[in-house]
């Protein structure tokens, strides 16, 4: 009788152990973030003028739009100026920017992307070494725009 009681308790203990192990292994996994809709950020743009000075602009709007192909995004810099010598502000589109994600952040990257502005391509300002990150509602970008280093940091507009 003692052996039967011990065997039942041992079986109950093993059943509880297996159940808790199974429950722990089935806990919700952290899913990677995914860009499913447009997001617009407002922030500061800085361009190295290659003469020892930086040109900075505040309240620059940058819109990210998921591309039709999963894993890619289009970056639109809206009404932006890259130098105090620019006579007009323009919209610049950077297409086919690759993104990867984890549950905590989205990482952006691209190289050799010809930007589009004022209805045409601007190969003299080909985007290289583009890196970026979206985390906690903040977008940070760094790239070469032709021979000019450019950085951007902005927060998501709600």
Number of strands: 10
What are the secondary-structure elements, in order, as H or E?
HEEEEEEEEEE
CATH topology: Lipocalin
For the record, the CATH architecture stands as Beta Barrel
Cα distance spanning the termini = 69 Å
Name of the CATH class: Mainly Beta
Shape: globular
Query: What ranges have pLDDT less than 50 throughout 5 or more consecutive residues?
Result: 12-28
For the sheet with most strands, the description reads: 8 strands, antiparallel, barrel
Count up the domains: 1
What is the overall pLDDT average? Answer: 86
In which range does the helix fraction lie? 10-25%
Structural class: alpha+beta
What's the number of helices? Answer: 1
Radius of gyration: 25 Å
- Share of β-strand residues: over 45%
Q: Strand order of the main beta sheet, please?
A: 1-2-3-4-5-8-9-10
Concise description?
This protein has one helix and ten strands; from the N terminus they run H-E-E-E-E-E-E-E-E-E-E.
Describe it:
This protein has one domain (39-156): Beta Barrel (Lipocalin), CATH 2.40.128. The chain is globular. Helices cover 15% and strands 50% of the residues. It has an eight-stranded antiparallel barrel with strand order 1-2-3-4-5-8-9-10. It has one helix at 2-25; strands at 39-48, 54-66, 72-80, 90-101, 106-110, 116-117, 120-121, 127-135, 138-145, 148-156. It has 158 residues and is an alpha+beta fold. Residues 12-28 have low confidence and may be disordered.
